[in-house]
Amino acid sequence: MPRAAVERVLVTGGAGFIGTHTVRRLLDDGRAVLVLDDLRHACGEPVPRPAELVRAELSSRTAAEAIAGFRPHGIIHLAAQGGVGRSVRDPAGDAQVNVVGTCAILRAAVDAGCRRVVFASSGGAIYGRARRLPSQEGDREHPLSPYGAAKLACEGYLGMFRRTFGLSSVALRYSNVYGPYQDGTGEAGVVAISIHRLLGGERPQVTGDGLQTRDFVYVGDVARANCLALAAAATGALNVGTGRGTAVREVLEILGRLAGDRAGPELIPARPGEVRHTHLLVERADRQLGWRAEVPLAAGLQQTLASFRERAGRPGAPGG
Ligand SMILES: NC(=O)c1ccc[n+]([C@@H]2O[C@H](COP(=O)([O-])OP(=O)(O)OC[C@H]3O[C@@H](n4cnc5c(N)ncnc54)[C@H](O)[C@@H]3O)[C@@H](O)[C@H]2O)c1
């Protein structure tokens, strides 16, 4: 779809971590943006003008009316209940937001004449314990949590809405996203949690031997992938990562050095069922979107630490 055809963009979850970076990028590109978010896990940065915010739950009548009124050309659907652990504790609550909420958005998209949906899926949660690395889009999906099963179910709904209602869509399977404005007080996001601990004078913690690897991708690169995917013709699933696995312990050591911490990470017992290694093959996103991750890990970590420090010193801003 040509770029000019996607001038009005709705971003669900646009007040969250990835959403905030995505909305700023869309505005920089000159697009009209409406944010739909009930602010249950907003990152604390104000929605930038001239974007408008509608505070509403995904499945609500207010949300459907806002979409009908705005008539978006494209939707970037980021709103979700994050947290694998939380989804294990409450699978029905997870499905209510992540599956039912997504169906409501897709239905409202069709009713409003929207032509394109970009969906935030998850490489880590969908591939599970991968038989081979890097994980490719054609590999068997093996979600190990309700959160991963919900992402896979949503990809199924995207395919159905494409076939039955002609709604073009793509699912971007992000790897481990990190960067400014990520919540450092929750259960997920080792970079944000570790910076939060370092700035609070505590040692970062790593489970097991710390040699488990993850594919850490900078949030600015992910926001760029979201924007490129809006105007592309790609359908199905596309991995969005760096294509490289990095040991969690190495990331914490870099952060420790940058923060001037001498104590080093603290090793805590491994979590049962934790996946040992993940990283994603990203050739398909390169071919179909012309996208590759550009921000090197050390530079991304430095920017993230600087942002957390700046916010910690800003009155009223969340520390994480
Ligand atoms: N952060 C990662 O590493 C990562 C990795 C893979 C996939 N994802 C996916 O990317 C998307 C964005 O993730 P994030 O890290 O920015 O999360 P986030 O929690 O920072 O942002 C989500 C936003 O959605 C809003 N929201 C949640 N439920 C809602 C509901 N029912 N109605 C309206 N608004 C609601 C929250 O208030 C929040 O502002 C999510 O779909 C997530 O599953 C994230």
Characterise the protein shown here:
By secondary structure, the chain is of the alpha/beta class. The protein has a domain at 3-178 and 216-242: Rossmann fold (3-Layer(aba) Sandwich), CATH 3.40.50.720. Helices cover 41% and strands 16% of the residues. The chain contains eleven helices and 13 strands. It has helices at 17-28, 61-70, 84-89, 91-111, 123-127, 146-165, 190-199, 219-230, 248-259, 283-289, 297-312; strands at 8-12, 32-36, 52-54, 74-77, 116-122, 168-174, 176-178, 205-207, 213-214, 216-218, 236-240, 246-247, 266-268. The strands form four sheets. The protein has a seven-stranded parallel β-sheet, with helices on both faces. β1 (8-12), α1 (17-28) and β2 form a beta-alpha-beta unit. α2 runs parallel beside α4 and α9 crosses α11. The longest helix has 21 residues, at 91-111. It is globular, with a radius of gyration of 19 Å. The protein starts with 7 loop residues before the first strand and ends in an 8-residue tail after the last helix. The model has no long low-confidence stretch (mean pLDDT 94). The structure holds nicotinamide-adenine-dinucleotide. Nicotinamide-adenine-dinucleotide binds at residues 13, 15-19, 37-43, 57-58, 78-82, 97, 101, 120, 122, 174, 176-177. The site of nicotinamide-adenine-dinucleotide (NAD) has 27 residues, from α1, α4, β5 and β7.
